[in-house]
From TrEMBL:
InterPro entries: AAA+_ATPase, ABC_AA/LPS_Transport, ABC_transporter-like_ATP-bd, P-loop_NTPase. This is ABC transporter ATP-binding protein. PANTHER family: AMINO ACID ABC TRANSPORTER ATP-BINDING PROTEIN (PTHR45772:SF7), CONSERVED COMPONENT OF ABC TRANSPORTER FOR NATURAL AMINO ACIDS-RELATED (PTHR45772). Keywords: ATP-binding, Nucleotide-binding, Transport. SMART domains: AAA. GO terms for molecular function: ATP binding; ATP hydrolysis activity; L-isoleucine transmembrane transporter activity; L-phenylalanine transmembrane transporter activity; L-valine transmembrane transporter activity. The lineage of its organism: Bacteria, Pseudomonadati, Pseudomonadota, Alphaproteobacteria, Rhodobacterales. GO terms for biological process: D-alanine transmembrane transport; L-alanine transport; L-isoleucine import across plasma membrane; L-valine import across plasma membrane. It holds the Pfam family ABC_tran. Residues 4-249 form the ABC transporter domain. One of its GO terms (cellular component) is plasma membrane.
Length: 249
């Protein structure tokens, strides 16, 4: 049994069958990638895992418990954290303030305006946020305005904010989209470091094959809402169906 078990998941938008019949098993403490052409249903699948969408059919089990019917914040508390396609940080706040928010959420179950007013008086939160910034190699950027950072560093902060919640499953939707090569490579290194240092399962949707083949232990190829193959990177590279459907050969 994987930490994540997706069985017969289907999702329709009006006349469009975005997900047909998705079966997927992600083993604990591995890096799993989902690849597939634009419109294949990758983001829809992720949305079904985090409670943003409710599938029409099938089941989604995380660590033996169903996520279906739970609200996104409840699923988050179960141990699933998600990094979105566009960075979701608070541009008007400092790097440190951004990092403190998930630390409050983790400890108190919510981040309230009250907590915000006196946030720096909360030693426990300050220390935890500082420790997370250290781990992310962002201690020097502590007081920088988050909006002024490079795309790569925004992504680094956002991943750190997810990790502050101590998830067991980290989901990333095209984390290197729109990045320059140097930022992409930094993100690959960061994810490798996270994998090495923690007990965590990572499931990543990615367009960039360099990223996928650098990180993933298993790859699922999704085409038109249905998994085409699921295999190791080496086998995926040589798979005729994949070359045809995805690599366009
Ligand atoms: P991917 O992430 O693989 O590029 P998506 O999951 O975003 O694909 O989309 C799969 C299909 O579902 C696409 O044809 C897309 O246009 C459609 N779709 C996605 N979200 C919605 C929605 N909220 N309403 C209607 N159609 C949608
Ligand atoms: Mg997408």
């Amino acid at each position: 049994m994987g930490i994540l078990e997706v069985k017969n998941v289907g999702k329709r938008f009006g006349g469009l069958q975005a997900l047909g019949d998705v079966n997927l098993s992600v083993a604990e403490n591995t890096v799993h990638a989902i690849i597939g052409p634009n419109g294949a249903g990758k983001s829809t699948l992720l949305n079904c895992l985090v409670g943003k969408l409710i599938p029409d059919t099938g089941s989604v089990m995380f660590d033996g418990q169903s996520v279906l019917g739970r609200k996104p914040f409840e699923i988050n508390q179960m141990g699933i954290s998600r990094v979105f396609q566009t960075p979701e940080i608070f541009g008007e706040l400092s790097v440190m303030e951004n990092m403190m928010i998930p630390c409050f959420a983790k400890r108190d179950g919510a981040f309230t305006p009250n907590a915000f007013r006196d946030m720096f008086k909360d030693r426990e939160i300050v220390e935890r946020a500082e420790q997370m910034l250290e781990e992310m190699n962002m201690a020097d950027a502590r007081d920088d305005n988050a909006a002024t950072m490079s795309r790569g560093n925004k992504r680094r902060l956002e991943i750190g904010m997810c990790l502050a919640q101590e998830p067991r499953l980290l989901l990333l939707d095209e984390p290197t989209a729109g990045m320059a090569r140097a930022d992409t490579n930094n993100t690959i290194d960061l994810l490798k470091q996270i994998k090495d240092e923690r007990d965590i399962t990572i499931s990543i949707i990615e367009h960039d094959m360099h990223v996928v083949f650098s990180l993933a232990e298993r790859i699922t190829v999704l085409a038109q809402g249905t998994p085409l193959v699921e295999d190791t990177p080496d086998n995926i590279k040589g798979h005729p169906k994949v070359r045809e459907a995805y690599l366009g050969e």
